[in-house]
């Protein structure tokens, strides 16, 4: 159940983030679609590199601790992105966005690697195909939900403030709130798993 919750919240945030930032860069900063895509290159590169090390990190820290670390890194990147946009607006450049988007990409890689590990951890081997299909369905559904959810926050803020920057900041704040909720739930899940392990361990003597 926690894996499903994780998938809904995180992938909704992911798709909403990509949607809102693309609209902000094109509509507010005057980027072409190609330039807007270039702004995500460093995020994708950071995601790719971090994903190569995610298995080792999970083996070292555990899947839930890695998830919490990923959330912390991503949220730091989101705060950095908001500060960067306020600082350089209305002329953000790829180099300006690089530090924040690298952090976001690293955090996303750790979170995604834990999503499948947590979601399938209690699924019997004979039902692994059905379990992975369910997780993929949740992932695709959340992608559509996120664009609608954060897109609505962005559109309403844009309408109210008449500023693409304010619209983007409102959507990023909403995403930050959702990621904070996910982090709190991950900590609670980690504590519950520890209690279950202690309860299942034999008593000494």
Overview of the molecule:
The relative contact order is 0.19. This protein has helices spanning 2-28, 33-38, 41-61, 63-88, 94-119, 128-161, 164-200. By secondary structure, it is an all-alpha fold.
Would you kindly provide a brief summary of this structure?
This protein has 205 residues and is an all-alpha fold.
Number of continuous helical runs: 7
Series of secondary-structure elements, N-terminal to C-terminal: HHHHHHH
Low-confidence segments, given as residue ranges, are none
Major sheet summary line: none
- β-strand amount: under 5%
Mean pLDDT comes to 90
Q: Round the Cα radius of gyration to an integer and report it.
A: 19 Å
| First and last CA, distance | 35 Å
Q: Tell me the structural class.
A: mainly alpha
């Amino acid at each position: 159940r926690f894996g499903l919750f994780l998938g809904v919240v995180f992938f909704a945030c992911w798709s909403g983030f990509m949607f809102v930032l693309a609209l902000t860069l094109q509509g507010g900063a005057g980027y072409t679609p190609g330039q807007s895509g270039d702004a995500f290159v460093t995020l994708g590169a950071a995601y790719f590199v971090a994903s190569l090390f995610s298995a080792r990190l999970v083996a070292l820290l555990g899947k839930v601790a890695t998830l919490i670390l990923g959330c912390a890194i991503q949220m730091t990147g989101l705060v950095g992105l908001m500060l960067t946009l306020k600082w350089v607006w209305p002329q953000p450049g790829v180099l300006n966005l690089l530090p924040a988007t690298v952090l976001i990409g690293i955090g996303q890689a750790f979170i995604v690697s834990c999503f499948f590990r947590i979601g399938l951890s209690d699924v019997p081997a004979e039902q692994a195909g059905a379990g992975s299909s369910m997780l993929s369905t949740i992932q695709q559904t959340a992608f559509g939900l996120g664009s609608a959810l954060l897109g609505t926050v962005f559109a309403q803020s844009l309408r109210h403030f008449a500023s693409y920057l304010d619209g983007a900041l409102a959507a990023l704040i909403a995403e930050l709130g959702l990621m904070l909720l996910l982090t709190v739930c991950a900590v609670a899940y980690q504590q519950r798993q520890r209690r279950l392990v202690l309860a299942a361990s034999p008593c000494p003597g």
